[in-house]
Amino acid sequence: MATERFHSRGICFGCCRMPGCLARNWPDGGGPGNQSGEQGGIRYPNGAMAKTNALSGKWALVTGASAGIGTALARELAGCGARLLLTARRRDRLEALAAELAARGTETRIVTADLNDPEAPRQIYEATEGAGLTVDVLVNNAGLGQFGAFHAAPAEQELSQVRVNCEAVVRLSRLFVPRMVERRRGWVMVVASTASFQPIPYLSTYAATKVFDRFFALGLAAEVARFGVTVTTLCPGPTESEFFAVARASAFRRNVQPANVVAARAVEAMMRGRRIVIPPLDGRFTAFLVRFLPTGLITGAIERIARPQ
């Protein structure tokens, strides 16, 4: 599997949320000025704090880059001066995004792949790091979800969520993280969800996969911190994307936040060395509150509200 290159003049936009960043002027892409807000999470040691131009000229691989948070993260990283490796299933979407980023001066390559295929992570690796590109940023963003009663859902639909949301994250991380450890440099982002803080009836498999993502990322973060590699877990709440339409989960479409705001806060948190970031205030409150509520109370309430008609 070969990459395709989209390149214009080499412009460094500086780092995303820092003063004077040109990324804030991008339409729908660079985030709303310097609205960093308070971030929830655990800091790395001060030595892991990123410098202003830390991502300039470095290759960043974003999975699920064809829509939603993945597209917004790609734009945000480009605004930090990174070069982009975009992967997803839909080639036309990738080409459109690559052309947009190239027009703004970002070197971009695309790799079409379906992470439901266990061989896809190896194919992505061979087309990037294996082809001589040094991937310093890995964003495990691709994910699947499906709303409905588990007992009535096709088994393959549930298993696909496990393969894409969990297995592919582990396979990609196992391929790229060892190289980062060898170089004593790297950033990994794993996109989980506020769904990872409590079981969610009718999104049972999806929520469980996001628990896996969050715990995997937090454990890996502790392992590789001493090698200069940071791992950040992004736990967004409801975000403007295709998820609600594709997953038929309109029952959970409340207090939706713009994808570019989520991306801006996620990249800022990653560059500050945070191990977990929960962008919405109500998401942080929920993650805190559920620690003290009986699980049965939470699942019972969600089941009554979300029960399919």
Highlighted features:
globular; about 300 residues; about 40% helix
**Count of alpha and pi helical runs:** 9
With strands numbered from the N-terminus, the spatial order across the biggest sheet is 1-4-3-2-5-6-7-8
Helix content: 25-40%
The count of DSSP E runs of length 2 or more, i.e. the number of strands, is 8
Structural class: alpha/beta
Roughly what is the average pLDDT, rounded to an integer?
82
Q: Outline the low-pLDDT stretches.
A: 5-52
Structure characterization notes:
The protein is built from nine helices and eight strands. The protein is α/β, with parallel strands linked by helices. It has a single domain, classed as NAD(P)-binding Rossmann-like Domain (Rossmann fold). It has an eight-stranded mixed beta sheet, with helices on both faces. β3, α2 and β4 (108-112) form a beta-alpha-beta unit. The longest helix has 29 residues, at 155-183.
Question: What secondary-structure arrangement, pairings included, does this model have?
Answer:
Layout: E1 4-6, E2 59-63, H1 68-79, E3 83-88, H2 91-103, E4 108-112, H3 120-127, E5 135-140, H4 155-183, E6 186-191, H5 204-224, E7 229-234, H6 243-246, H7 259-271, E8 276-277, H8 281-289, H9 295-306
Parallel strand pairs: 2-3, 2-5, 3-4, 5-6, 6-7, 7-8
Antiparallel strand pairs: 1-4
Helix pairs in contact: 1-7, 3-4, 4-5
Summarize the structure in short.
The chain is of the alpha/beta class and 309 residues long. Helices cover 39% and strands 13% of the residues.
